[in-house]
Design brief:
Elements lengths: L1 H67 L14 H54 L4 H34 L9
């Protein structure tokens, strides 16, 4: 019996060790499950971030597609032209555009000069009218003074406009004319 007791006792210890081993294994499995969950979460996050990166790249591509029509990508759509031919065509187009802008600026200046002449005539007529009204006694000295101040302000504006137009006209005249190409 003694031997049996010790045998059973030994078997009991084995079961405790087995329980301990089972507990350790279960703990490790829980850790692994947690780790797996973390790994799964990390993978999910990584997939989300990968998807976000792909979306961002797609957005960038869309932006570049939409901005491709904007800006000066002169060499992108050459058509059949190559190198020197394309450059010469671009230069010719640039010269035409410059000449066109210069012509538009000259026309605008001419319109402004006509407006200045019209305003000067109006000012002259207003001065004459005020003078005649004063002589006839239709307005008092105070009214004459107020009207003359308004006329003087209008005259100052016309002078400033004249100066601006003269400056712009000089600037346009100083710009060299486009010389024709020599072939």
């Amino acid at each position: 019996m003694i031997a049996m007791v010790s045998f059973t006792y030994a078997q009991g210890q084995g079961r405790e060790k087995q329980k301990e081993k089972v507990d350790k294994v279960q703990k490790q499995e829980k850790k692994n499950d947690r780790g797996d969950k973390e790994v799964k979460n990390k993978k999910a996050n990584k997939q989300d971030s990968d998807e976000k990166k792909i979306e961002k790249e797609a957005e960038k591509a869309e932006r570049t597609d939409s901005t491709a029509s904007e800006g000066n990508a002169y060499g992108k759509n050459k058509g059949d032209l190559k190198g020197k031919e394309f450059g010469q065509q671009r230069a010719e187009e640039a010269k035409k555009m410059s000449a066109e802008r210069k012509a538009n600026a000259k026309q605008k200046i001419e319109e402004q000069e006509q407006q200045i002449k019209g305003n000067e005539e109006k000012i002259k007529n207003a001065r004459d009218k005020v003078k005649k009204q004063k002589e006839k006694g239709e307005i008092s000295a105070e009214e004459e003074k107020a009207k003359n101040e308004k006329i003087n302000k209008a005259e100052d504006k016309v002078k400033k406009m004249k100066e601006t137009v003269a400056k712009n006209k000089k600037k346009i005249e100083e710009t060299p004319l486009e010389e024709p190409e020599m072939e």
